[in-house]
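User: Just a sanity check before I run the rest of the batch. Below are the structure tokens for the first item. I only need the designed sequence back.
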């Protein structure tokens, strides 16, 4: 079956859709991650960085970055004929956080993408998902030339619960990103099986 069409003798299949957010600080690789796995040309809402934004957009550590997401990134992966995964990349700067609540509605889970050179940039995203009890995985984007740290060291630095998966990844590589998304789905499923907290 091709997405949106029916096989001979069968009616159209209405797919179940799952939604995963990709969050993290400015310049961490959210747009790259969505683009690495999307089966469609991803929707991107990027604009050039301007002189007016220089005082609020901290480009230290990402000096080569010339654009920024101003609304969201969107990608799609068809897992089966009746199961589709939608990826929504959130904007990284504080001034766009008013969009997060809308994007988070109905989300199965999230990826908090982290850069060990600027780990503090993902604190806000971790806090956001913890406060809303949205299952999340921390994906440590292993940039070329950046120091590598074991997952447990990152967990400790972010003060994460032991149950939160921390995965080393390369946001440019499709297979690496797929592994992160699988962990999100597994983590969300495990959370649903747990008894409700009182």
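Assistant: Here's the designed sequence for the first item:
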């Amino acid at each position: 079956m091709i997405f949106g069409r029916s096989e001979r003798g069968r009616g159209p299949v209405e797919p179940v859709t799952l939604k995963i957010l990709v969050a993290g600080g400015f310049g961490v690789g959210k747009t790259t991650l969505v683009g690495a796995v999307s089966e469609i040309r991803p929707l991107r809402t990027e604009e050039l960085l301007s002189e007016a934004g220089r005082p609020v957009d901290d480009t230290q550590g990402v000096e080569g970055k010339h654009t920024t997401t101003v609304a969201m990134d969107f990608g799609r992966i068809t897992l089966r004929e009746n199961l589709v995964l939608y990826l929504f990349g959130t904007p990284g700067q504080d001034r766009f956080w008013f969009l997060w609540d809308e994007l988070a509605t109905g989300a199965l889970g999230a990826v908090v993408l982290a850069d060990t050179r600027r780990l503090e940039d993902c604190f806000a995203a971790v806090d956001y998902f913890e406060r809303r009890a949205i299952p999340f995985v921390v994906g440590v984007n292993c940039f070329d030339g950046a120091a590598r740290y074991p997952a447990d060291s990152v967990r400790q630095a972010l003060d994460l619960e032991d149950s939160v998966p921390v995965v080393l990844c390369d946001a440019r590589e499709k297979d690496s990103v797929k592994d992160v998304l699988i962990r999100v789905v597994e983590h969300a499923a495990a959370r649903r099986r747990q008894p409700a907290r009182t």
